[in-house]
Every structure is written in C-alpha cells, then in structure tokens.
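Subject: Interface between my chains keeps coming out wrong

I've been trying for a while to get a sensible model of this assembly. When I model each chain on its own everything looks fine, but I need the whole thing in one frame so I can look at the contacts. Pasting all components below, labels as-is. Any help appreciated, I'm running out of ideas.
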Amino acid sequence: MRVARACERLGLDFACVYTASDEQSGHVALGRQLRGDASVVRIQSYHDANEILSVADHCGATAVHPGYGFFAEDFRFARRVTERRRKLIFIGPSWKIIQSLGDKINTKRLARSLGVPTVPGSDRPVYDELEAEEIAATLFAFQSEQGIEKPLVLVKASAGGGGMGIEEVYTIDKFKNVYRRIRNYAKRQFHDEGVLIEQRIHHFNHLEVQILGARGGADIVHFGTRNCSIQSTGRQKRIEVAPGFAPAEVSYNFDAAKVLGDIVDHSLAIAREVGYDNAGTWEWMVTPVGQPFLMEVNTRIQVENGVSAIVSKIKGQGGVDLIAEQIRLGLGDAMGYGQSDVALCGAGIEYRIIAEDPAAKFAPWVGRIDRFAWQGAPWLQMFTHIPLDAPYEIPIEYDPNLALAIIWGKDLAEAKARGLEFLGGVELAGQDPVGSPLRSNLSFLREKTASILEFH
Amino acid sequence: MDIDKNIKELSARLSYIKDVVAGGDSDNLRILGGKFQEFLDREPGLSPPERQRQFTQLEDMFIFLEKKLDAELSPMDKVRIVRHPQRITLKDILENVYDNYTEIGGQDEYSIDPAMLIARAYISRKRGGKVVNQPVMVIGQEKGHGEEFRNGGSVKPWGNAKALQYMKVAETENIPVHTYVFTPGAYPIEDYPGAAQQIARNLYEMSGLRVPVVACFSEGGSGGAEAIGLADTRLMLSHGYYSVISPEGAAAIESGIRQGQRAPAELIEKCAADLKITASDNLRLGFVDRVIQEPPLGARPEHYEFFKTLRAEMIRATDEIVLQVRGVKLLRAMALRGREGQTADVDNMQVFWGLTQTQSDRLIWRRYRKFREMSKNAMIDNSSVAGRLFSQASGLGWSVFSYFRHDFLLPLRKSVWRTVEEAQAELHLLKRKAISEPLRRIREKLGPRSIDPEKQQKLTELSCPEDGVCLTDTGWNYLSPQAREDKAVTCTNAATHGCMDMWAPDLFGDFAGVCGHCGHHFSMEYQWYLYNVFDPDSIMEFNSKIESGDPLAFPGFQEKLELAKKKTGKKSACMTFEARINGLKLVVAMLMAPFRGGTVGAAEGEKFIRAAAWARRRRLPFMAYVHGTAGIRIQEGVNGVIQMPRCTMAVRRYIEAGGLYLVLYDTNSYAGPVASFLGCSPYQFSVRSANIGFAGPGVIKETTGIDIPPFYHRSYYALARGHIQGIWDRREVRKNMYQTLLTMGGGNLYYR
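Reply #2:
Try treating it as a single job with all components included. I did that and got this:
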C-alpha cells in the first residue's frame, strides 16, 4: 500500500501482486482504485520469483520493488532482476552490496576494518578447539573485568542462521562440551565445522540508523536514529521511536547524545566504504553503559521507516516519504539535497497494532474483525490494509498485523501524551470462529508508552 | 535296432545343420534332406547289409557336406553353433576330459546358481608304470542342453562369488584352476553383491591368484566371460566366439533402435563379422594363445576325439605354465612344444602342478606382463621415438629415485627425528621445572592477573587483516556454460519435494548444479570438477598424445571418432594428470562422458595403466574420477574388453605396492569399467548424481525379462548394497577428497 501510494505520489505507473488469501487486503483495493483492474495480478505464491517476474514482463514493468520481506534482502533475486535478458531495475541496493552486507561475518570484519565497534568475539569461523577455548576464556575474563555480573559466551555455527545451532555458555568449564556439540551439529547440518564465539549481551537497547544513498554510492545521507527496544517476547518490534534517545528529556547513565552521534558516524563510514546506493538500516545494540555494537545491516527499507520520516524535514519541508525517496533514487535520480538540508525535529512514535495476546506470549489471534475505527488527528498517520467498511477475515497464512500508527509530537512528552490519546480512541472488535472476542496488543502498547526511551 | 539309433542320430545331425547354418547353403541342404528322406522311405525294404551300405553312403554325404559348410561358416553361424542346445557343455567336458570329478554344491536347479558349475576333478597320468592323479579345480558356466534353469550360462552375482570362493580354495590347496567360459554374458542384476561389483572382485583376485589358471573359451560374452577368464593361458574352441557384446546388442546400438524392437537380421550378421569375434580373429589379435580345432560345424557331445584333443591341450597348457616358472624343465618343455601340428603325448609324462612361493610370484608377474602386452597396437601413440625412450628412462629414474627416497632415506630420517623430539621433550620439562613454575608462583603472589591486552585486542579488532576483509568466497573457479542462460529450471523432484523453480545462473553457478531445496544434483561438465576440485593451475596432464583408434576398422566408426575428437578437443575419453588438493599431490585418471559416452577402449585402458604406473613410481595417491562411462567401447571389440583385466591388474599392482586408490563416480557409470578396474577399489565414492551398475534398465529388461524397481542404479542403492562407501555432495567434493586423503593415509601409503 505504501509503495503504491509512493508511486502515486511520484506519478509512476505500477502493478501489484496478491495471493488468493490476500484478496481482501487493502493494497488490492487501492491498486484497483488507482490504476484499474489490470494493475492487480493474482499469483500463487509471494516466494516464486518466476511468477513475479513474468507478471513484471506481462505488465511491461521497468522496475521491481520487493517490499519489506522475502526478496528484499535476497541478493539472488536482485541479481536475477538486474541481469536477466529483459533487464529490470531493482528498487534496493545493488546485489553485490546485498550479498556482502547480508553475510554477518563479512559485515563484522568490514566494521572492524573501519574501527567500528562490534560484539567482542571471533570475526571468522573458528575450527581449532584450542583456539576456540582461548577465545572463550578471554571473553569471560573480559566481561568480568567490565563488571558484568553473569558473563555469558555465545557459541554459534558460523554457517547457521535464524537461531539454529546457537548455545549459551555460563562457565568456561562447560565450554568444551558445548563447543563440541555445536561443532558436530554444524558439521551435520551445514557441512561446515566452523563456529563463532561471541560475548552474549543480554541487556541492551536496539537502535537503528536510517541511511539513504543515491545510485553510484557517492551521495549518502542519514535520517537519524530510531529506538526499537520495545519488543514482544519473540524479539519482534512493537513500538519504534525516533530519535533513538532523548537526552534532553530522559536522563541516562552515559552520554546519549554522543552515542547517537557515534553510531550515525559509524554507519555512514560503512555505507561510504561499500558505496551504499539505496535505502538501508544499520542496526545497533547499546549496552547500559552506553557502549554501542553494530549488529547487522538491513539492506532494505523497513516497516518503521515512517517514524523516521515523520520527524524529518528536507530543505525545511515536512511530509517526507522515505519509500518515495527510495524509489526515486532507485530509478537513478540524483539525491538533490545534502545532509545539511535534512533537519530532524520533534519525536515520533510508531505503534504496531496487532491481533495477538501479549499475556499468552504474544500468540497470534485469528478471526474476523467487525469494527476498526480511530479518531483522526493532524499529528497522526495511520496505515492499514484492513477494509473499514466491511468485516475482514484475517488470513491464517500471514502475520495478523492490523495497522501502523505514527504519531508526532514537538517533543517526547507531547508525543507520548498524543500516543496515549490515540490508543484510547481506537475501537477494535471482532470474533474468532468459536465466538471468543478479539485480542489485541493495544493495552500492551499503552502500558509501554510510559517508559519509552528510558534505559537503565 | 542299431540302425534305428543311427538314423535317429543322423536326423538330429540334419536338424542341427539346419539350425546353425541359417539360409547358408540351402540347395545342398535340400538335396541332403531329400536323400535322407529317400533312404528313410526305402529303408524298411532293404536287406541288412544293403541297408548298412546305403547308410554309410548317406553318412559320408553328411560328412562331406558338413566339411563343406564348415569352411563357409560365417561368424554369426558360429554364434548360433555355440548357442545351440546340442553344443557341448561343461558337464560333457567333465565326463570326457577328466578322469574323475565331484561336483561341488548344487544338483541341477538346487544350486545357488545352476549356471555356474564347480567341480573338483583329477587327471590321471602315467610316468613309467606309475599312475598319478593330479587334482584341478574346474570352474565354468554350465549352459545345459536346453534346461531352462541353467539360464543359458548367464551367471548371477552370487554364482561368480562362488567361483571366486573356489578359486581361493584352489589357491589354498595349491592346485591349478581350469575355467571353461560358456556364457553369453553375466546376469545383469544388482542384488547384493551386484553383478558389476562381483566381477570386479573376481578380476582383482584372479590377477593375483597364486596357482596356474587355464581358461578355455567357447562362448565368451564380455563381462560374464571376464569373471572367470583372466588366465595364464587362454585357449579357445575353434567354433567359439569371444566378444565385447552379443551381435544382437551391437546391432541394436548401431541401428539406434528402441527397447523392445529387433535389429534387422542382416545388420546382426554384419556386426558379428565386424566385431571380429571368432577364434581365428582372437588368435590373430593376441587375445587367446591357442585355438583347439573342433569337428566340422562344432563339437557336440558325441565327438569323443575332440574331447581327447581338449584334454591333451588343457594338460599341455597347465604343464607349460608350471614349467615356465620352474627351474628343472628343459626336456619336458621341449617335449611339450612338440613338433608342428602334433600334440605331445601328455599322458605319459609328469609335471607336478604345485608351486612354491617364488614360483607363484613369478607366475603372477608373467600373467601381468602377458596382459600388459595385449591390445598395445590398438591405439595411436603419437609420441615420438625419442619421447618414448625418454619416458621409459624417466620411469626408470623415478623408480630408482623413489626407492632411494622412500625406502632408504625416509626410515633413516624418521629415526633421527624421533631422537631429536625425545631430547626436546626432556629439555622442555627441565626448563619448566627450573624457570617457568617459580616465575608463575611469584606472579600469583603479586596479585590477580589482568587480561593480556593482545588477547583482548583479538576480541574486538579485525583478525588476520592480511587475509582481506571479505572472507566469503562464494564463487567457483569454473562457471558452467549452463549458467549463462536466462531461464528457470524445474527440479526433477519438484512434484514430490515442492522445490521452487531455479534461475539457471543461480543453479548452475552458485549452487553448483544442486537444487537448494531437495539436494537433487543436475549433471555438470567434467571441467567443473577439473577447475573446482583441484588447486588452481595445479593440473599437469601427461600421456596426452595417446589417441583412440579404430583397430578393427569398424564400419563408420572412424568418422564417429573424428567427430568426437573434434567436438571435445580431446584425443580419448581418458585424461590423465597430476594435480594437487590443498597442496597434496595426486594422480588422476578421468573418464569423460562427452567423448563417446566415456567408453573405454585400448587407448583409455593404456592411459589408465600408465597413470597407475606413474602414481606408483612417484608414490602418489591415485584417483579415478569417473565423470561418466557407458562401458567398454564396443567398436573396438575384444581390444576394449581386454582392458578390464589389464587395468585391474595395473590397479592391483599399484595397491599391492602400497598405494591409495580412490574412485569417484559422478554421472552414469555402467558396465565393463565398473565391473573391473573401478569396482575393485576398496574406496569407491559417488557424487549424489551418480547412477552405478552393470547394465542399464533397458538392457536388464531385454536380457532378463524382469522389471526393475525405480531408482535401481541410484547412488543411494549402490551405497545400501555395499558397492560404494559414501555419497558426496558435489559442492563438497574438494573438501571430502582432501579429508579422505588425510584420513586414509597411513604408514604404508605412498604419500606419507
């Protein structure tokens, strides 16, 4: 929907795809409304590149926007789009950048080569048991020296991902055992014995830096920081706030302004090094003592881009649309402004309204939504694919995300107050197949609003 | 009454002639048939003497015609002769050639394999007035006179296993082995141990069998014949055939017909002639040592004179083998040689057939030399005379050098090293006790240690910056041309595993032709392995000047060969080279599928043997990488099939000298090579894409009539039945090869 709107705003023609179970989704209606029936095409699966590309050829498209998920960070898809016989533009960084920043070890080494702080530990797969043990021992000593009460070391399969083949070690005595287990697991599962050994950081704030680069990779600006530390138990973001810290209103144990400045500078350094040429997000963890570590780079536009946009002004103009900027730059336009033209003012809060039960480990709720309404306000942007004039059945195949609400205030206090005001006015009702009422995370969001940006 | 029996025999003779000489001399046959009928009509009214006279007359006519027809027999007629139910069988030979015998294991169909007959027999000979019984182990295929359960002499894997078992028994008992080859080919099923695997084992063991082996060929059908045919002396019956493939099979391949169809009869006749399968052809080409003359139109059970000749020849052959490796032999050897065209009186002389240790060694060496010399002229060697001399000299040089280095210097160096190491260990302990320990204690007293800043640096700063920032190496050195097409490829298993279609550049580039979802391996070119498995620029080809030829002048083959040479830019289907994997040197012989299906002929076999010798002289591990092989090259006839024993013997020689011989199958690997020099390796691995077996599904259906289960030849089945020892992912071939070289190296292996 937001991509469609951005195209509309840029005056570009577009077509969008949907699957059978997404038929009721708002983006289909919006596509029909804006560009007619021919511009919405039904496909079997969002995962099938062949299908998507044949739709692109059929519609005569010249560029592909991969959305937020699936293909956005898949360098193979990006490469295929740009290197097939009928070449298309991939709205995203060039595939080589996706590939090199998509590899965590590679990113870590790149960061270290530029003096950017990364999580202490190995930056290459370790194959030798003696070497592994030495690293682990130093890591334990290192942590106790820093005053960490319960030092933890993480052993993970270097070829793994998505939480597979990761284990924590509490004492060095247990290390050998765990190391061998992970090594054998990695050998069996990934055919590679290499493991990574890192410090496990438990308590941290999740910060992000929004970067935008023009094609060619020389022209790079940032749109400030975001704090995404309010998450579900499964580490899924629920509230995102811009800026990352608010030193003027909240007190911290460290120099928060300097930390924000540092992570922005570090992020820009890496972006310049690789010649970053589209929208991307640098993810950071900041420890309670204000030590930042680079986690990873997301080589795509993220859902929470709106909260950075709402606090931004380009050449004094508000109403920034980062997706539109991404598309514009992706198509090869010049940036047209510099860092000094980007101003950040006020605070933004983004709520993700989701049908789930925070009390039951955020279990998704499935059913029919009968009523969904809220009170509009000039400081509020609302994005939802849910039709407001008819009941809506949540498709079981996808996450039950209902809406994104982005709120702006001239400072954090005002934004928080407005957030509470907004949440109070949301009406949301529905039923699941057995007749139980809808569950949502509205109360969770309300409860968490109070402690936004606080970090101890 | 007697005359009735004779008439019956004559009638059988007539129908036999009609059977074997199909459409040959029909006029003569008709006249003979007419005369026979005339006699039959007249016979009841004749007086006994007159009857006898006329019968003798008729019989003479038979003999005359048989002789006449015999001179005009076509190769295909001979094939019909050996396949005829009236042809002599091994049982007839046991009855008539040996003086007594006991059949071992099996009574008619109650046998592990009725097509394989084994007997412990003896031959009685006289020296002066003394009778000596000399035992032999008789092993051979039994076709039977039309009994169905004999399977026409087509032996199942376990039949060949039994043959091998009793060859080993003969070895233990130190008695010679007489084998009789009466087979159209092996029964091509892969049930344990598998047709190919068993024949390979037989060949491997026979090439080192420590007792004399005499083989007598009547019907020598390719792989099945080789299973018992590797012998010190190979005799052949004059009306027999010895061929790489049945004429029908060759015709089917030549005409390119599909399964279930029949090749035209003329083409079959032509192929039988072109393949040079007769006894005289094989004698001329050097694949058999002597031909035993049969009666006109082939030996049948009533030809007692023939059995006497056969007996004499078998004894003579055994005697010769023994005497060749024995010291005191002069007179007897001369007697055996006899005069031209005369058989020696073998029954009245005495040669003991048992061998001593050294004699056995000599025997095996002679056997190796004998096969090494075969089919030498069946390929084109383009290297110059000087080049050949140089390679011989350098071979010798290497032998001397590696003896000096590995057998003389290495043990010396090892013992010196050990002494030094021991001394160092002592010194270390002394140092620790005297210096390090007290120092440590002092440091501990001073206070808690802080972390070594250098170690801490390692945790937060870039390690090994000299390796470069980017460690990921996703590229392969060689990019398949299949990866340059812009198309989506559907995985073979998409229907069952739900694999997504893949973009060709991804699939054949990054994924190395392996489906990312189900792991299905698509075929890749041999170049992919050449440049992705071995260290870059480490490949050094040798013997590249040896070229495949057309030794039998097989019609139309020269053009096909030229085409293959032009298409692939190679001179044969076998490339031999030295290469390195992570610095470890090894010798590789590679069979390439694009060159005539990777078939093995004289040139390929010769290159393989020379590669094994190259590896042996330089003390390097030897690997056979089978990108694909369809089997023995049929257009080279027995020149091809003889590569089975030849190469197997080379492999055995290499392994026994202490080498490590590895085999890696990639795509389709079938028939002769798998049933010999590949299948005999103790370390056989396969890439997941491989199909391994003796005969393809079509051939199995055609020859046995049974429907085989799906995926019968898949590598996983080969693994399950114990043929191969592991299945490798293509992307990990390099890693696994290296690992194998490291783990299988031992004290007695070359490269350590």
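Reply #3:
Confirming on my end. Chain B has four domains: 2-72, 82-373, 481-523, 526-744.
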